[in-house]
Amino acid sequence: MGQPFTIGMDIGTTSTKAVLYDAAFAALDTATVGYPTIRTEEGMAEQDPLAIQAAVLSVLKTVLDRNASVRDQIASVAFSCAMHSVLLVSETGEPVTPVYTWADNRSNPTLQALQAETDLQWVYQKTGTPIHSMSPFSKLLWLQAEHPEWLSEGVRIVGIKEYITHHFTGEWKVDYSIASATGLFNLERLDWDDDILDFVGVNRKAFSEPVDTNAVFGGRIEGAYAAAGLPLTAKLVIGASDGCLANLGLNAIGNNEAAMTIGTSGAVRMVSDHIALDPEGRTFCYYLAKDKWVVGGAVNNGGNAFEWIATMLSKDGAADYAALNALAASIEAGSDGLLFFPYLNGERAPLWDAAVQAHFVGLTAIHTPGHLVRSVMEGVLFNLAEVLHILETFAGPARSLKVTGGFLHSPLWKQMTADILNKTLTLSPQFESSCLGAALIGQEHTPAFLETMEAEEVVPDEATAQVYAKTYALYYALAKPIKEIHAIKAAHCRK
Q: How many angstroms separate the CA atoms of 298 and 173, rounded?
């Protein structure tokens, strides 16, 4: 037999991707299949588990059919997956509910009512998962309130990755990384927390067996392997969550090495060699591997905020991104006093408030469409800068910052990022970092190409960075009053 090959798979919120890697972990081929998110009422974000299962089988079969000559040399398939999903299934593995994704916010009223009665900080201290409607902790509280009959005996509570891996193996297992993002998992003991399960009103028998992120499944369902075109000799490695694996795939796994992503949403993550929690519960702490914890904050509003303003200002809703970048570039740093608080889709870090709304502050008659565009771009970055600032206050300064995401296509946004954060950015050319991270789980050494690959660096402009330091200080000072305005408005609407 020739050299071994590996497939890294990422089960994402909008699509599933599979990447075929050779023995040196160079990407040889990839396939992607998307699926819809169902939104027929406010706060709803559901998906069909059968559609996701079909996507997994499709991308595997596509990659393997196109590379039939190496099919029998596939050593392993390893999984990355989006966090915070909830799916109820029968004991035989049949779906009882749709998949409730992280973006489903219908648990927010239930959670807010509970928070008004009791302090839930103890849950964060045990689990490292911020108290927010995204988490399975909140979704189970909502299901108990709205559909308690669904949580009856004989129903399992799983995430979408468990559903997929059970289809291939017949085993119900969950990795420590995905489990640590549920709000139900004790970080110190690496096990489900009985106090929290009692509080939510669910039995630990409903949950999968927690295992380490490099665990290999022992079971094989021959029909599922055959449908995907996988040889029965291929091992299935459980892997971890997409955000944690993105740091691994970017080679940002040394102590206090940070990674930042801006795609539709955004995130800042730093690796720590110990459990690191924010005293105010504003950041997450998720397991990656032994002695490696990923600390950070994900934001709801990244490139989608730029897409929103682009569509708003474009003719016939057809956004001309190049023209709008040019408009923004014509405006001085700081947007002549116009600030944008980018909470168009509620917010996770640093506010963890699913109902908060966006605000322009300081809008005057002198401001033009270019000011609006630039202030939106700046607002997204100020929000991420606040998350990074929070991280650095309790986890220590970031020694390096590797960045990735669609925003890198804009030279203006790249430079703006370096100037606002006042840090040199390393722009990673790495393709599908979460898929590569999955493939690397359990490897003893980092691939040489990750250590030596050439990467563009963006250095902050000193004068512009000083302007942004003053603007960010104002943004930060206004963040609390903005929250108070939102609270007053929300109280008025309730009346």
A: 26
